Amino acid sequence: MSQLSLFNIDWKQLAFTGERLDLIDKVCQIQDFQTSIFGKIASYPDHEHEMFNLSYMPKSKILKHNLLILKVNNKFLYSQQFRAELDNLIEFLKLKFNNVTRIDYALDFQFLRAGLTGTRFMELLGNNKIDLKYKGKKTIIFPSNHNEPPEYVRFGNHSSEFNVYIYNKTKELQEQKDKPYIREQWKNCEFLENFPVFRLEISFKPNKTKFFLNKDNHNSFNNLDNILNINFHKNIFNYLIKNKFRFYYTSGKKSMVDLFYLPETQEDSNVKMLVDYDLKGSDNYIRGVINFLEKNNNEIRAYYNIDSNALSETIDILKFIYSVK
Question: Taking the complete model, does pTM exceed 0.85, yes or no?
Answer without folding.
Answer: no
